Amino acid sequence: MKKNILFVVNPISGDVDKAEMTATVAQFADKENKNLVIYETIGQDDIAKIKALYKTHLPERIVIAGGDGTIKMVAEAMENVDVILGILPAGSANGLSVDLNLPTTIEENLNIAFRNNYMEMDMVRINGKNSLHLSDIGLNADLIKNYEKSETRGMWGYALQAYTTLKEANEPFHATIKANNEIVETMARMIVIANSQKYGTGIVINPNGVMNDGKFELVILKNLDLIVFGKIITGNIPIDSDDVLIISSDQATIKTNVPVSFQIDGEYCGAETNLDIKILHQQMKIAIP
């Protein structure tokens, strides 16, 4: 009896040709003697449809071609199901695959997605929404908001918006953070809620991040002038300075004195004054190298 693999593909994410990719995956599944069930996301009722497909076909794995948004959606659909997810990075934001050190070629990723061992990964729930790896309030969320509105794409567009965002930055905001039975009052330019270490660009923002330790880190950047921001984007976060404070916890709240831009996994979510954060321990099984 052939085992089923559910292949969830986001046809419009990133700039990878999905038709070609689907053909390669189908070929690989055939060679592995697996029956491939293909589902293309349409942006409507996808979660319900993925749940129904799982019920019907009971796949031994779900392979996902897309970015962080697609992976998160499948993880939400499979929230109470014991199934391994394999990733073929193909989105505009592939932060999770960068964090998992997934290779760049589809052949190598197919081997991992179909055959390899897995880790039981945590997720972070913020105001009822799930975050896979990095969310934040403050300057970077402003940058994402500006980038989403801009015409220029890619790293150049990002650099351009980074400059604009810093130039037009508001005053630092005041944050009251409750975590580990302590209250921290601080001024901040940006607070990162990190389940992992790196942004999709490869920048390490949270050197302490472990994706399955039952904790997240709050990385508080108190001062973010061009020099500190430059250090961060070149991957040299000044951890030992007074400008950076890191709190590790499994539950926290953040209250700000003004509405502050907020983003989850590279997606702008509006401005917030209240964040309620908790860890979802070992929430999903992900195939890893």
Quick recap:
The chain is an alpha+beta fold and 289 residues long. The chain contains 8 helices and 14 strands.
Write structural notes for this entry:
The chain has eight helices and 14 strands. With 289 residues, it is of the alpha+beta class. Helix 1 links the parallel strand 1 (3-9) and strand 2. The model has no long low-confidence stretch (mean pLDDT 88).
List the helices and strands and how they pair.
Blueprint (H helix, E strand, L loop, with lengths): L2 E7 L8 H14 L2 E7 L5 H12 L3 E6 L1 H10 L6 E6 L5 H5 L6 H10 L2 E9 L2 E3 L2 E5 H11 L4 H14 L5 E7 L2 E7 L1 E5 L21 E6 L4 H8 L10 E6 L1 E14 L2 E21 L2
Parallel strand pairs: 1-2, 1-3, 3-4, 4-14
Antiparallel strand pairs: 5-6, 5-14, 7-10, 7-13, 8-9, 8-13, 10-11, 11-12, 13-14
Helix pairs in contact: 2-3, 6-7
Which percent range describes the beta-strand content? Answer: 35-45%
Mean pLDDT: 88
Radius of gyration: 19 Å
Order of helices and strands: EHEHEHEHHEEEHHEEEEHEEE
Cα distance spanning the termini? 28 Å
Largest sheet: 14 strands, mixed
* Count of helix runs: 8
Shape: globular
Q: How helical, in percent, are the residues? A: 25-40%
Number of strands: 14
Structural class: alpha+beta
Low-confidence stretches: none
